[in-house]
Every structure is written in structure tokens, then in C-alpha cells.
Specification:
single chain; eight-stranded parallel β-sheet; 10 strands; zinc
Amino acid sequence: MGVVPLKEIVDRAMRDRYGVAAINIVNDLTLESVLAAAVERRSPIIVQTSVKTVKSIGSDVLMAMWRAMTAGIEVPCCLHLDHCPERAVITECLDKGWNSVLFDASTMPVEENLRQTIEVVAEARAHGAHVEGEIEAIKGVEDDVGSDEVSKRQSLEVSVHFVETSGVDVFAPSIGNAHGVYSATPHLDDQRVTDLVAATGVPIALHGGTGLSDEQFTDLIARGCAKVNVSTALKVTYMQSNLAFLRETEERGKWDPPSLFRHVGADVTAMAAGYVDRFGSAGMAW
């Protein structure tokens, strides 16, 4: 199938009530490994890049990597810009070929957020791309974006008005979820997901997927969380795998970078495949 629009992926997932893993990659190795997991499991996949990753690697290099690694791929995939408050970066990524963006204006008053989101949606449409919207900051700092303060939760009426007026394709509400590692199993407002889907018909993005229980994933996906974000788990897996291999390498005194890459890549692929299985998207490629 290859690279497809975000909306095609999430609309199918919500219709059939499975979740699609949206995994933040940090370099070429993690990109290759996440795509390998999707192919292995015959699953659609959403690859995400943070603003920090775009700036550190460069949009041209990231897009070259993406095109090279998805050439001939036989599962549906798309490239998404995660949590971006900077309009210039959104424009840059859309111009380069990203399939979708999350315009994160959650620190703005809702009215200004809506005004600018309408502009971003129009810009994305001109590129054949889609937009995820957000009016409440998800607690936690991720790749230098966000806050540890709990954001005020807007009413259902305000949220529905934002979704319907802005024309966003995916909506990311705050339901007690958080970026990073949870200190305890969070208590989530799952009814809010049900209410938003019933009122708008728009797929929901679940942020802060690392650390939720299988029961929570299953329940929220059944309610309409079609896009499930995973970032912290990849970073932890990637760095711990490097650390473990390098410690063993130091003991043996045998330094071979390709062996390190194979080891870390296998661990990241296994991690991503595990989330695909948990979210019910294995075998859902078309």
C-alpha cells in the first residue's frame, strides 16, 4: 500500500475499532526499526517526528530517509509532525511532504487557537495533508514542548465547537493522560472520549501511551481512540538497549558498531511490534 493520508489510516481504525501506533522516531535506525515492525505485523503505522528531531536532523534529511525507507513498502504508513507550536516549522514540514501535523496551540486562548488552527487546516489541505488539533495541553514535557502543569479542561460544548469549526481530522483531548513515565496508573476520563466521538465523529488521538495498561488501551480504543501515541517507550528502549550492549562490549573488548546497530534495531522493532499487537492493528494492512 505504501504512504497514504493520515485520515485514511485513522478513519479505518475508528470504524473497525482498533488503534494505530503513532511512534516518535529519533534517527534513521529507529525509523527503519519501527517500519520493520509494521511490515512484520502487517499493520498500518504512523511515524512521528518531534520539532526537536526536525531541527536536529533537518527536514530535508528526514524526508530523504522517509522516502528511501518507504519506497515499495507494502503496509499503509504516514509521516506526522507531533506537538508543533511553531507555524514556520509546520509550513516547512508540509512543504517537504509530511502527511499530517499536530498544531499545538494549547497554550493560547481557545479563540486564538481556533483562529490559527483554521489557517493551518487550510494550509494542510493545499498540500493534501491532514491536521490534528488540541486545545488543552497534555501534562508533561516531551522534546522540550509542554508543561508539567495540569491544563484546564474545556467543556464538551467548547471542544465540539473547536473540532467542527476548525475542520481538524483528529482531536487530542486531555483525559488525565500525560507525557513521560506515569508514577502510578492514571485515572482516565474515558467517558469524555465517548462523548466527543458521539458528538463529532472525529477520531481521537490518545497521547501519553507509554505506561497505560492493556485494559485502558482496549477500552479507549473501543471508544474511538484510533491514534495512540508512543514516544517515551521508544526513547527508553533505544537508550537502554545501547547501554546494555555497550557495557557488554566493554567487558569483551570487542568494538563493532554494526553489531550494536543490529542489537538496538531488533529491540526497537520488538518494542514497536508489541504495541501493534496491544492496539489490535496487526493484520489490518490493506
